[in-house]
């Protein structure tokens, strides 16, 4: 479909808006002067009715952009779905194509932000700095229970070496680890610095630490399950900063109970859309799996904060607005990785 050129301030509706989204998008809108509507609610079949005369909807990781929502967006004449994130497993791209709605994303805003958070999780779980912080504030200077291990010389398995996995592999390489990697497409630059591409099975069998950086799709859903866990070393450390459903949470809980998994760091959780990005401190949480996970002393949960740096939020706002501008004016985006449909 040929896009009509829009010269009067297009309207962009943001869903799942947090105060920091508003701050960064308003700041960088000075150059674009779009009309911005901010909704705190997640986009779904009910909340889609909130929009009024909107050209673009801007969504985040837990917004539900399924066929029904897209149909309603098409009825409201929405032209663009702009994801302000990299992952797009929550959008029905085929349905968007059917309705001639363009879909764009921010393919790489700060891979280092996520890679550095994965490393922070490893160091925290290993050296228990979160416990040490609380202890010394209570004048408890004992070291009992804080014993860690040298990361230097350990084998780290990286699954998915795209933008984030590559940045992460470089970091662990710098720590003196032996780095094993699995990806559908090996990265030559990583091979040159000594990263070895191996089979998934070898990663599971030989790694002391496994970090997930592949996207969520039909092939990777529940990649970590009771069978793959059984191949792993006893006391393995597992880190997931990618998407919750890469892990079968029940199987991981079982392996934590048995001591097979020695450490778990997750920034993402399969049922996170009901919990993350909100303050539930006064609520009764009905999700027993997350409650069980949080009860283990060797589990660290962060609430999808790996991307959350000043540099990343700046890039997200700039790239999102540039994507929208390109689509509204040329019906295309120069950066092909940003255009999904
Ligand atoms: P990317 O697209 O640059 O890299 C993904 C890599 O995974 C590619 O090299 C691809 O070939 C590989 N891959 C695809 N299927 C695979 C499979 N079956 N097994 C192994 N590797 C496979 O994506 P990027 O930017 O590195 O992001 C990775 C993921 O991180 C995203 O899909 C997203 O889910 C997650 N993410 C999480 C954030 C957070 O705040 N926690 C922030 C940004 C992204």
TrEMBL record:
Residue ranges of every copy of the D-isomer specific 2-hydroxyacid dehydrogenase catalytic domain listed in the record: 12-335
Transmembrane segments: none
Top-level taxon: Bacteria
Domain D-isomer specific 2-hydroxyacid dehydrogenase NAD-binding: 119-306
Keywords: NAD, Oxidoreductase
S-adenosyl-L-methionine found in the keyword field: no
Family: Belongs to the D-isomer specific 2-hydroxyacid dehydrogenase family.
PANTHER family: 2-HYDROXYACID DEHYDROGENASE HOMOLOG 1-RELATED (PTHR43026:SF1)
Listed name of the protein: 2-hydroxyacid dehydrogenase
Origin species: Flavobacterium flavipallidum
Upper lineage: Bacteria, Pseudomonadati, Bacteroidota, Flavobacteriia, Flavobacteriales
């Amino acid at each position: 479909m040929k896009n009509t050129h829009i010269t009067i301030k297009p309207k962009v509706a943001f869903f799942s808006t947090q105060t920091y989204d508003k701050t960064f998008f308003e700041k960088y809108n000075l150059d674009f002067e779009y009309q911005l509507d901010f909704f705190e609610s997640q986009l779904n079949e009910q909340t889609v009715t909130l929009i009024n005369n909107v050209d673009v909807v801007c969504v985040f990781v837990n917004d539900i952009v399924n066929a029904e929502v897209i149909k309603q967006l098409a009825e409201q004449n929405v032209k663009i779905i702009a994801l302000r994130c990299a992952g797009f497993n929550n959008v029905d791209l085929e349905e968007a194509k059917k309705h001639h709605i363009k879909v764009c994303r921010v393919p790489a805003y700060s891979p280092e932000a996520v890679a550095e958070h994965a490393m922070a999780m490893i160091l925290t779980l290993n050296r228990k700095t979160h416990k040490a912080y609380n202890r010394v504030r209570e004048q408890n200077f004992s070291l009992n229970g804080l014993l860690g291990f040298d990361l230097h010389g350990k084998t780290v398995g990286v699954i998915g070496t795209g933008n984030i996995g590559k940045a992460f592999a470089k970091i662990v390489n710098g720590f003196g680890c032996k780095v094993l990697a699995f990806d559908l497409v090996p990265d030559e630059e990583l091979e040159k610095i000594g990263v070895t591409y191996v089979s998934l099975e070898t990663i599971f069998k030989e790694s002391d630490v496994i970090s997930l950086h592949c996207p969520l799709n039909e092939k990777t859903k529940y990649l970590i399950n009771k069978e793959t866990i059984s191949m792993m070393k006893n006391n393995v450390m597992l880190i997931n900063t990618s998407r919750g459903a890469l892990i079968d949470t029940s199987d991981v809980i079982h392996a934590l109970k048995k001591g097979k998994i020695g450490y778990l760091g997750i920034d993402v959780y399969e049922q996170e859309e009901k919990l993350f990005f909100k303050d539930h401190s006064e609520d009764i949480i009905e999700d027993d799996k997350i409650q069980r996970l949080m009860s283990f002393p060797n589990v660290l949960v962060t609430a999808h904060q790996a991307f959350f740096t000043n540099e990343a939020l700046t890039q997200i706002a700039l790239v999102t607005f540039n994507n929208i501008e390109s689509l509204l004016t040329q019906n295309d985006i120069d950066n092909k990785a940003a255009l999904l449909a």
